[in-house]
Amino acid sequence: MKIPGQKPDPRTLRPATQLVHGGTQRSQFGETSEAIFLTQGFVYESMERAEARFKGDEPGYVYSRYSNPTVVMFEERMALFEGAEAARATASGMAAVTASLMSLVKAGDHVVAARALFGACLYVVEDLLPRFGVSSTLVDGADLSQWRAAMRPETKVLFLESPTNPCLEVYDIAAIAAIAHDNGSLLVVDNVFATPILQKPLALGADCVVYSATKHIDGHGRCLGGVILASQELIDTHIHAFLRQTGPVLSPFNAWVLLKSLETLPLRVRQQMQSAERIADFLSGCQHIRLVRYPGRSDHPQADLVKRQMRGGGTLVSFEFAGGKAAAFAFANQLSIIKISNNLGDAKSLITHPATTTHQRLTPEARAALGVNDGLLRLSVGLEDADDLIDDLGAALAALDQHGLAAE
Q1: How far, in Å, CA of 114 to CA of 111, rounded?
Q2: Which of 26, 213, 215, 268 has the fewest CB atoms below 10 angstroms from its CB?
Q3: DSSP structure class, residue 9
Q4: Which residues of 104-117 are buried (b: 16+ CB within 10 A; e: fewer)?
Q5: In whole angstroms, what is the distance from residue 91 CA to residue 98 CA?
Q6: Cα distances (angstroms) measured from residue 301 to each of 167, 170, 305, 364
Q7: Beta partners for 380?
Q8: What's the CA gap between 234 and 347, in Å, rounded?
Q9: CA nearest 330: which of 378, 285, 397, 408?
Q10: Is 337 in contact with 372 (CB distance < 8 Å)?
Q11: Contact at 8 Å (CB) between 53 and 173?
């Protein structure tokens, strides 16, 4: 019960309130909206104060590569909502992934990762880390026995995304975290598809969570950003120094954009998810579509796990045409409201062909192993009226029927 006149502990507030007010700092002007501190450096009252600030004897800002008031507001709001002790923002989602992995390993260490990763994440694990003496093993993320078998004494980090991009597999985060901890390793989870609205990896046992804030957190296709969330100790010991010295940090302007977007995140994700559920049901009844993948449906391979681990099926739907690439391309080219783009989590509905975009750098054999077939399309459902989106999809399917392109 709230005591009259007493400010509530931000940690006790409900999520929607945290996303509006969490971490807010006001200047002497008492602005309503968060201020943008577009500055590289900061002024000190004396040389002695500057010395104390650099030594860490006095709190305050030194340089915006290290920290910035607007960026700190975004970090604190994200940490509060995620249930993390600390957060550090980055210039992009891939900066968050790369910094979180590279700051936790050194030459001679070993990383185990789920095979079903975004193409750039696979590059970091398979190509970048080995250049610095860090070996890696890829496993089927749904098979817990493969995670156990891949563990070595030198394994320091396990890495996964769930749901996966683009096939929307869901992995048992709690069980994989237990495997990591039994070995003295850390689990890093890319939670971008689920969003912090629908899944809380830290509460399930993960040690570190990363986001591409470019996606749902911005939600309007405006700017890039990323964020790493973990314990204060992990952030202070590993992440902060890496970002401070290498510089892949978030700009104050982008931090301000993301702060504004967080205010509407629950509303957007809830509406997008409701539409995604309807669209998945519609597509599953279309005869020329061989397979529909949506975590909110009872026919999803990990449906029971989804119920335990997530608060909903998310905003993305993947579906596969029997007619392969030709049918997928012809269908997408007929869409009017839904736009062709490789982004996701946007207010606008976006569709992409993963085999020729996000996962094009993989060999055909590697794509096939992941289920990224030539007929597969990934749809990110936006904020348009669901009936209009279904009409758009239906009209594109009808056009394929007229030209005989939908069937094998």
Answers
A1: 10
A2: 26
A3: P
A4: bbeeebbbbbbbbb
A5: 11
A6: 11, 8, 9, 24
A7: 316, 350
A8: 34
A9: 397
A10: no
A11: no
Per-residue pLDDT of the chain (408 residues; tens, 9 = 90+): 566 667 888 888 988 899 999 999 898 889 999 999 999 999 999 999 999 999 999 999 999 999 999 999 999 999 999 999 999 999 999 999 999 999 999 999 999 999 999 989 999 999 999 999 999 999 999 999 999 999 999 999 999 999 999 999 999 999 999 999 999 999 999 999 999 999 999 999 999 999 999 999 999 999 999 999 999 999 999 999 999 999 999 999 999 999 999 999 999 999 999 999 999 999 998 988 999 999 999 999 999 999 999 999 999 999 999 999 999 999 999 999 999 999 999 999 999 999 999 898 888 998 988 889 999 999 999 999 999 999 999 999 999 887 766 554
pTM across the whole model: 0.94
**C-alpha span between 124 and 128 (Å, rounded):** 5
Residues 6+ positions from 389 with CB-CB distance below 8 Å = 275, 279, 337, 338, 349, 381, 382
Q: How far apart are the first and last CA of the chain?
A: 63
Q: Report the distance separating Cα 9 and Cα 32, nearest Å.
A: 20
Angle made by CA atoms 18, 89, 70, in degrees to the nearest 5: 65
DSSP per residue, 298-311: TTSTTHHHHHHH-S
* Cβ–Cβ < 8 Å for 201, 191: yes
Integer Cα distance of 378 and 408 in angstroms? 20
Distance of CA 24 to the CA centre of its chain: 23
In DSSP terms, 89 is beta-bridged to: 227
Residues 6+ positions from 315 with CB-CB distance below 8 Å: 195, 216, 269, 272, 273, 276, 344, 345, 380, 381
Alpha helix ranges (H) inside 107-251: 119-123, 129-131, 144-150, 173-182, 195-198, 232-234, 240-246
Neighbouring C-beta atoms of residue 375, cutoff 10 Å: 23
